[in-house]
Amino acid sequence: MKKLFVALIIGVGIYVSVQNNSAIVSSFTEQGVQNNQVIADAYQNRLSDIQVSGSGIVTRTLRDDNEGSRHQRFILRLSAGQTLLIAHNIDLAPKINTLQKGDVVDFYGEYEWNAKGGVVHWTHHDPGGRHVGGWLKHNGRKYE
């Protein structure tokens, strides 16, 4: 009887844990969908200068732009299928040296509309303190 009671308690504990984790996963998924929707709306309505966050998969790495301020550039595909060019200022923030096609990158920066899906820049701190700081996250490390 004691073994049955212990098994029942363990079963209830596992059930509660799964339910709580499902709520957490659902919350993150919902947040990702909301972020993607903000970006999709900005693209559809040709809006710019919008602070956005999200996550995507690297589909292509591009050569660094070395004219003026240097920028690391790569293309992300969001879960909804939209692509974004990420232009990360490597004069103000560290470069992601290990970035490869297929990697997941989280971002927080400013969205600018273009016909190809848009550009996210300001993914770094602002040394002048006039603009909200942005960042990139890759493999658990934050680049700001």
Structure explained in plain terms:
It is a single chain. The protein is of the alpha+beta class and 144 residues long. The chain has one domain: Beta Barrel (OB fold (Dihydrolipoamide Acetyltransferase, E2P)), CATH 2.40.50. The chain has 1 helix and 7 strands; from the N terminus they run αβββββββ. The protein has one helix spanning 2-44, and strands at 50-61, 71-77, 83-89, 104-112, 119-121, 135-138, 141-143. A 5-stranded mixed β-barrel has the order 1-2-3-5-4. Strand 4 (104-112) and strand 5 form a beta hairpin. Residues 3-32 have low confidence and may be disordered.
Low-confidence stretches: 3-32
> Would you identify the CATH architecture?
Beta Barrel
Strand coverage percent: 25-35%
The proportion of residues forming helix, as a percent range, comes to: 25-40%
The CATH topology assignment is OB fold (Dihydrolipoamide Acetyltransferase, E2P)
Provide the number of structural domains. Answer: 1
- What is the CATH superfamily? Bacterial OB-fold
Oligomer: single chain
| SS-derived structural category | alpha+beta
**The level-1 CATH class:** Mainly Beta
